């Protein structure tokens, strides 16, 4: 077994993460995933992929349970029916 | 032209971690767009407030004791997993020895450890949803205080790939 057998290809990492291959390469370049070009091909450390998968799963699990509204967080909530805020990504202004 | 303020070292308080922007905030840090710092105080407050919210919601929903306990048990499992999987991403600092001399603007001493954490982390920004106690958009003790949405917009404006990366991270469907 060669040393590279312990690593994933970008294609394998992309499939595991559920994102595109260019996204995997960009995340490696950002330092968010461990890996890089080696001997003419890209390799990805599987531990860093699994770490990212587990973090995402834990976020999804918490979101599934809901999040308190800002008024609830501030402790100023009136005794009205519970309002659960949906997660969402704010958009850029420009 | 003045340089834009740094947004690289950031403390998220428990209200930011509790809120609906938790996913994008943590995802952006996991993708190395900035670094989150937290402390034992923030972790404990997050777990406690989330537990209180789950219990209050169960009460409002008219849950009996058994259902309430089930919800609390499930919530504890989720919170523990979240903290465990955030640990490699978020950096912990020791806040306890940071002086509290100039905290007279903070009326609730329970908020002091938040600012102590931000000072211990040498943070550029404190992100919080607690606008009742923290003046959003202002600088206190040399640290900018922003709400989650404003912070994320600023981050996305500064890093053109960040928004699409965060969306890809959160929308991804990992294989089993």
Task: Kindly describe this structure.
By secondary structure, chain A is α+β, with helices and mostly antiparallel strands. Chain A has a domain at 3-65: Multidrug-efflux Transporter Regulator, Chain: A, Domain 2 (Orthogonal Bundle). Chain A is 45% helix and 13% strand. Chain A is built from 4 helices and 4 strands, in the order ααββαβαβ. In chain A, the strands form 2 sheets. Chain A has a two-stranded antiparallel ribbon. The longest helix of chain A has 20 residues, at 46-65. Chain A is elongated, with a radius of gyration of 19 Å. The model of chain A is unreliable at 76-82 (pLDDT under 50). Chain B is of the alpha/beta class and 176 residues long. Chain B has a domain at 9-38 and 90-171. In chain B, 49% of the residues lie in helices and 11% in strands. Chain B has 7 helices and 6 strands; from the N terminus they run E-H-H-E-H-H-E-H-E-E-E-H-H. Chain B has helices spanning 14-18, 22-30, 40-60, 65-86, 112-120, 148-158, 162-171, and strands at residues 9-12, 35-38, 91-92, 125-127, 139-140, 143-146. Chain B has a 6-stranded mixed sheet, sandwiched between helices. In chain B, helix 2 (22-30) crosses helix 7 (162-171) and helix 3 packs antiparallel against helix 4. The N and C termini of chain B lie far apart (50 Å). The model of chain B has no long low-confidence stretch (mean pLDDT 94). Chains A and B meet through helix 1, helix 2, helix 3, strand 3 and helix 4 of A and helix 2, helix 3, helix 4, helix 6 and helix 7 of B.
Structural class of chain A: alpha+beta
Q: What portion of residues of chain A belong to β-strands?
A: 5-15%
Q: Residue-averaged pLDDT of chain A, rounded?
A: 83
Structural class of chain B: alpha/beta
**Low-confidence spans of chain B:** none
N/C terminus separation of chain A: 50 Å
Keywords:
heterodimer, A: 94 residues, Multidrug-efflux Transporter Regulator, Chain: A, Domain 2, two-stranded antiparallel ribbon, 4 helices, 45% helix, B: 176 residues, alpha/beta, 7 helices, 11% strand
